[in-house]
Write a structure and sequence with these properties.
Layout lengths: L8 H8 L5 E7 L1 H4 L8 E7 L1 H14 L5 E5 L5 H10 L1 E5 L2 H8 L11 H9 L6 H28 L1
Parallel strand pairs: 2-3
Antiparallel strand pairs: 1-2, 1-4
Helix pairs in contact: 4-5
């Protein structure tokens, strides 16, 4: 069985690099996590034209032990979801799309650690963080702001 540890990523990248029309390819899921199961497919995120996709179907199954490909188009994802997958997966080809995605993410965006499978499902649903964590953080920020206001008042009195 092909595993990420057995896969020669540099050789695979060298085979993918010359494909015209391939702008992004990220391997994710159980193979990228290092825990593929017998019979599991290969999950990839791509941004490419149809010719490049045909080329991928010719190369990847052979290189990845005959596993079926599960293709997710990068254009279907929000920028935050794409970046999340890139952080957790293996980026095999990127011709600037991840940089462009990062530029589309709001400046106040941040990602909180979650259990990986739950986090991935929530990202695909467009919910990048657990609301309970956000509420806990907001509560802490409110407490910190109140403390700072108290210190500011004492500083004003001292001056």
């Amino acid at each position: 069985m092909v595993t990420l540890q057995k896969l020669d990523l540099e050789r695979l990248k060298a085979k993918l690099e010359p494909i015209q029309g391939l702008r992004l390819l990220i391997l994710f899921g159980s193979l990228a996590d290092g825990v593929p199961r017998k019979g599991s497919d290969v999950d990839i995120v791509v941004d490419c034209d149809d010719g490049a996709l045909r080329a991928l179907y010719g190369i990847l199954p052979r290189e990845l032990g005959g596993r079926e490909l599960h293709v997710l188009r990068a254009g279907w994802l929000k920028a935050e979801a794409l970046l999340h997958i890139a952080r957790r997966g293996v980026v095999l080809v990127d011709r600037g799309l991840l940089r462009d995605a990062q530029a589309r993410v709001p400046g106040d965006y941040f990602e909180l650690g979650e259990e990986p499978s739950r986090a991935f499902r929530s990202w695909l649903k467009g919910d990048p963080v657990d609301a309970r964590l956000v509420l806990r953080i907001v509560g802490q920020v409110d407490e910190d702001a109140e403390t700072l206001r108290g210190l500011e008042g004492r500083l004003d009195e001292a001056l």
